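Check the record.
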Amino acid sequence: MRNMCDRHAADLGRLWYQLQTAVRRAPSYQPNLIYLDMVEDDDDPRDPVVSSMQRDDAVDRLRCLNRCLRFKHEAFALAVNILDRFLSIMKVRVKFLGCLAITSYFIAINVLEEGQELPSPVHLIRISQCRCTEADLFRMEGIVCQKLYHDFGAVTPLTLLQLYHGICVTTGIMDAILEKRNLTPAEHLEQIIAKLEACLCRAPFTKFTAPVLAMSLLMCELDVFDTRDSDPGLCSTLNTLKVASQINEQHLVECQKKLEEFLLQYSSPVSRRPTSRFTWVLSSRTARQLRPSMQWAMDLPTILEDGTDGYGSSGSSEEDISSEEDSPRSDTDVVCSDDDDVFQTEIKSTPCFRCHIQKSRQKFCPIQQQCCNTCGQLPQQAGA
């Protein structure tokens, strides 16, 4: 028991130390996007500058890409931070936004996903549909690294949210809430992170600092704004976190109002949450490669109006019926074995050239010396 208490105290002390370090470093990584929607006189309407709505669309696509590739939530949060910090100091044209967004994500996964199997730049460009080349990505990476001074150890709202949640879980003040909702701490944190990622796709939330946004989201999730006196222990811990994070109460209330309005839309049946989808346009050749059943289709002869088939021969209806019942529909029949669940291929004999029932795409198998269903001759004898 004493060892458990010592370990518990050590974990709590480590979390508080990480929180103090993160709060001290957070202002250095705070983006400022108030200039995105300002129209200047020298702006060319034919080559516009990135607006806040276009920034939201780009971040939304990064969110969809990160879920598609199943990387960490931290990779998406860091990519958004890199993108916003670059947009805060540089005027970017719309035609370069896709390349900038995928470059920010490429830098983030290389920083955080060390030791993992990362997609190649070419694969990342193709799946993101950013319409740039590999050389463009590397060139943009050099520009981003130069402007941001290779400083990619950013403190994001996700960093502080994880620390806040970890401290509340370690102290045990959230046990009653988790038990009431029948959730584990990991599942509860995952739900809050999903809402935070949706908030990161909206430019108005970038005006709030990382501690304010993380604390507001956690308090909204715990319903502390409306029930301050219901759980004194929880409120006391959150107040201590606010003091340690140097959070302005006025900014917290303003962020809380925006969050309540946004989360109401987020959880409504007619949701306006980010729902980007990738759409791929395939050529006919690629479609044929993706649909192998098209390669199995046979070229059947054309039935002419005079009763003959496409090879100029005519036969009785009885012969046609017998040929349909006995002859195979294709040159190879795929049979599934129930014993070992292995697909085996059984090669059937090919009709002779005299019958002209179907085209022969394989040579006659000498192992199965079967007579032709129509004329009674061996196929290799008839073809000789």
